[in-house]
Write a structure and sequence with these properties.
single chain; alpha+beta; 2 domains; 22% strand; disordered C terminus
Length: 490
């Protein structure tokens, strides 16, 4: 290699080193040259806390959220209440997200970070969050590519973002906003709970079905079981079936909202069921349940593929109408219990709040069509006979009583008292015995034996009289043989 070639190589190497050092210095000092420094918030907290509207846009969808009468609603869903948890999550992310690094970049480099909203390829355009106050734009955030982690493995380490009013560069944040989406249907609150106070009476009818027999169930309080009304003496309620209606619509959910035209095209009018429900506060609702038409094409295709397949679940179209608000509770009598008086007082105090709640339900539910599944309506489409069973008569129990048999107890000497075979144990009634006939023999007196003189008492003292012998009885003289025999026995 000639000296000239060697000199050229040295010049190129020095130039590349200078360029590398300049670029490295630029990246290191980038955060100090961007508008926001490392650790700064994207928006001021006061701005985020005062917004009353949000608009979220992606390459596929767009959704508008706004506050109306103090609650968030979804504009594209007929101003239906929004899912408050989803809205709160976005607002907290806008308030808490900090700048991890600033990178100087002019608008011609935005497409490298997918931050150009005018990119020809719509899939490379950024997601956009627009902050609104009283209908006017107060801030806009562009969300670009996710930043890959240096550890490898395909993990991410934040996201590239930029602000519409900041042309100093782009920023890297740790929050990736992966939860964000713009499908309006995913932003509504899909809880359907008109009977949140708990129903105490349900009346079900079928105006277009002559074969359907209307039925009514009721209970005294929300703690009791539902019982079918109008039962005969030989019928009773299947409480395990009516138990599924205790919390009907308490926390039910719906699949989606339908337009009036779409609902009419999908309704099977013959299968309509109407439910008039009364809750524990006295409010009454009319809930109409209409089965969705079967898709004949899908059914035919399914039968051809698999005749034994399980049929698809049927969905229903549901409407809600508020007939009456809560009623004022009846004043308890003077002899009412303390608990009844306390319940009355509590209901009076909550009457205004319950009335406001019913008015909110009227605004939220009336005039809308909800698509629900079978689980949401429970057993409301069943026939009356499915809640009834034959009454089982309770027979009186037959009792057999026997006299107690005492257990033998030890005697005072320590030995157990044995029961002689053939003798009834104590405590059991003994049979009446015939009186015994006894022969009584008069006692026989035995005379004292004769004692030899040598064994007799000592001789009497001088001057004393001898003791005379007792006279013998005539019986002893007559029966000397019996005396001897008696002595031997003795």
């Amino acid at each position: 290699m000639s000296r000239l070639h060697l000199l050229i190589l040295w010049i190129l190497a020095i130039g590349a080193g200078v360029l590398f050092l300049n670029n490295k210095k630029t990246l290191e000092d980038a955060s100090s040259e961007t508008k926001l420094e490392t650790g700064s918030s994207l928006f001021k907290g006061s701005l985020v806390d005062t917004i009353d509207g949000l608009k979220i846009e992606t390459s596929e969808d767009s959704v508008s959220l706004k506050k109306a009468d103090g609650k968030w609603v979804v504009g594209e869903q007929q101003n239906f209440p929004a899912n408050l948890n989803s809205v709160t999550r976005v607002i907290e992310a806008l308030r808490d997200t900090k700048v991890a690094q600033g990178v100087i970049a002019s608008d011609e480099y935005y497409d490298r970070f997918n931050l150009d909203p005018e990119a020809e390829d719509t899939t490379e355009r950024p997601e956009v969050i627009t902050l609104m106050i009283e209908g006017k734009e107060s801030g806009k955030l562009y969300l670009g590519k996710s930043r890959e982690s240096t550890g490898g493995g395909g993990s991410t380490a934040g996201r590239f973002i930029r602000l519409a009013d900041d042309n100093s560069g782009v920023y890297i944040v740790q929050q990736d906003f992966g939860f964000l989406g713009a499908n309006p249907e995913n932003w509504i609150n899909k809880v359907l709970s008109p009977l949140e106070e708990g129903s105490i009476k349900m009346e079900v009818s079928a105006p277009n079905d002559t074969n359907f027999k209307p039925w009514t169930i009721s209970r005294k309080s929300v703690l009791d079981d539902f019982l079918i009304e109008g039962l005969s003496e030989k019928e009773e309620t299947k409480t395990n079936e009516t138990a599924t209606l205790k919390n009907g619509f308490a926390r039910a959910t719906f699949i989606s909202l339908l337009t009036e035209e779409d609902a009419k095209n999908r309704s099977d009018e013959k299968g309509i069921r109407e439910l008039k429900a009364t809750d524990s506060a006295g409010s009454t609702f009319l809930i109409t349940i209409i089965p969705e038409k079967k898709d004949e094409k899908k059914e035919d295709d399914k039968d051809k593929k698999d005749e034994a397949a399980v049929p698809p679940a049927i969905n229903f179209i549901l409407t809600v109408k508020v007939l009456d608000g809560p009623t004022k509770p009846e004043t308890p009598t003077a002899d009412a219990s303390v608990q009844d008086k306390a319940v009355y007082q509590q209901r009076v105090e909550n009457l205004a709040e319950l009335s406001a709640s019913v008015n909110r339900m009227r605004e939220t539910y009336e005039g809308r069509y909800f698509l629900v599944n079978t689980a949401a309506i429970g057993s409301l489409t069943k026939n009356r006979g499915e809640f009834i069973k034959p009454k089982v008569e309770k027979r009186k129990p037959v009792s057999v009583t026997t006299d107690p048999i005492p257990v033998p107890t030890p005697s005072s000497s320590g030995a157990p008292n044995l029961i002689i075979p053939g003798t009834p144990p104590p405590g059991i009634a003994r049979p009446v015995e015939k009186p015994k006939i006894e022969a009584v023999t008069p006692p026989i007196q035995v005379p004292p034996a004769k004692v030899p003189k040598t064994q007799q008492d000592p001789p009497p003292l001088p001057g004393s009289q001898p003791t005379p012998e007792p006279p013998k009885k005539p019986e002893e003289a007559k029966k000397p043989a019996e005396k001897e025999k008696t002595e031997e026995v003795e």
